[in-house]
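sry for the spam today, last one i promise. struct tokens for design, 387 residues
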């Protein structure tokens, strides 16, 4: 009997340790972990650099609160700003919190320039931004909001990648357009660079802020530090989380200077946000991701993986419908029952996770080895051949 509430559908496996791309169950079985704690364990399990950073900081100081200066946070913020479009950073603890903060910043920005009526946020219908009240209503998903009314107002929705639908939903009250650069949970749906460029142009013309949720596709997952870099555009606000902590809970909002100026003392806060322990670990993740060849390796492995998966698709046209993805955010859309397929992969010691639209989501650690990708391909092929 478990004393945990029943809000998760957990697989009946528990792990005693992890090493690199592998997890070892308490029964001693070895699994290839190609979900990485849902795009979190950027550097795999038990990464020596992360263990070292955690231990060093653990012996100094863990938590002091934002009533004080936090040098470790200054260091990570500087790294994030140096490597991205951003000028300023606010640290929080999770993706949902980062997204809520982003929404607050967009509204507060227009309030601060004397346009408080410009406060509506335009999102994609059936998207995913986390499980807090504002974010579930931002998602426009019936399933996620069921039973959680009254509705949080202020969100409008357009159809995925549909520029006409987007234009038709913009009003004088639109403060921000807010969506995931490459959609994870919703089925590994990657916006074209053309679409992203069009949205950026519309936002600039209509003085609307562009918020790109890079909680899942960011921090190198796409093969660039941010997925929007492929489109050569600059957003105004970018919430991040998942990958930046490498397994330690960290969230952050990156923003331009123009936007950041509205966040004066007292406008936002988080007790744990940016604590020294989290910051020391986030800094180490950043250093590893920006090591020479790290991101180009992600792109190289991605090309290889996607090419081989497309070969499998040709061999099993009745099982695989479509291969989707960018970088190491990969989806296999299948015709067969998703739960059964993922269970079969698990039985064959390959861990993956579901996404919407009957998609098997594959998220290896970013430092995955080619031979581990080959092992995954072998298992996927074996499971496909059963159907
Ligand atoms: C996971 C995720 C979130 C929510 O992050 P939490 O840390 O679970 O709150 C928000 N947006 C996207 C795109 C995500 O993938």
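last one done:
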């Amino acid at each position: 009997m478990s004393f945990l509430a029943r809000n998760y559908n957990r697989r009946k496996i528990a792990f005693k340790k992890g090493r690199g791309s592998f997890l070892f169950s308490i029964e001693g079985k070895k699994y290839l972990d190609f979900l990485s704690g849902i795009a979190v364990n950027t550097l795999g399990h038990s990464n020596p650099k992360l263990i070292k950073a955690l231990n060093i900081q653990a012996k100094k100081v863990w938590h002091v609160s934002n009533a004080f200066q936090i040098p470790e946070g200054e260091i990570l913020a500087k790294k994030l700003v140096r490597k991205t479009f951003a000028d300023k950073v606010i640290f929080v603890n999770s993706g949902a919190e980062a997204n809520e903060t982003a929404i607050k910043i967009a509204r507060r920005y227009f309030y601060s320039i004397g346009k408080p009526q410009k406060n509506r946020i335009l999102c994609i219908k059936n998207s995913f931004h986390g499980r807090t009240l504002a974010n579930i209503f931002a998602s426009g998903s019936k399933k996620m909001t069921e039973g959680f009314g009254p509705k949080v107002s202020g969100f409008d929705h357009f159809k995925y990648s549909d520029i006409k639908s987007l234009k038709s939903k913009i009003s004088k009250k639109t403060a921000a357009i807010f969506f995931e650069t490459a959609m994870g949970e919703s089925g590994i749906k990657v916006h074209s660079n053309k679409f992203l460029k069009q949205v950026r142009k519309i936002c600039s013309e209509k003085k609307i802020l562009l918020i790109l949720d890079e909680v899942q596709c960011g921090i190198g997952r796409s093969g660039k530090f941010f997925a929007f870099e492929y489109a050569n555009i600059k957003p105004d606000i970018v919430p991040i989380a998942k990958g930046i902590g490498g397994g330690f809970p960290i969230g952050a909002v990156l923003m331009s200077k123009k936007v950041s100026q509205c966040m004066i003392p007292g406008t936002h806060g988080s007790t744990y946000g940016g604590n020294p322990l989290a910051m020391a670990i986030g800094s180490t993740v950043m250093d590893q991701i920006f090591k020479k060849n790290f991101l180009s390796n992600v792109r190289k492995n991605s090309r290889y993986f996607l090419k081989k998966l497309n070969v499998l698709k040709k061999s099993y046209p009745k099982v695989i419908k479509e291969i989707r993805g960018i970088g190491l955010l990969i989806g296999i859309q299948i015709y067969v029952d998703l739960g059964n397929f993922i269970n079969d992969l698990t039985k064959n010691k390959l861990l993956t996770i579901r996404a919407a639209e009957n998609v098997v989501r594959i998220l290896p650690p970013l430092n995955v080895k080619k031979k581990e990708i080959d092992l995954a391909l072998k298992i996927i092929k074996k499971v496909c051949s059963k159907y």
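The two ends are 36 Å apart (CA to CA). ok im logging off now
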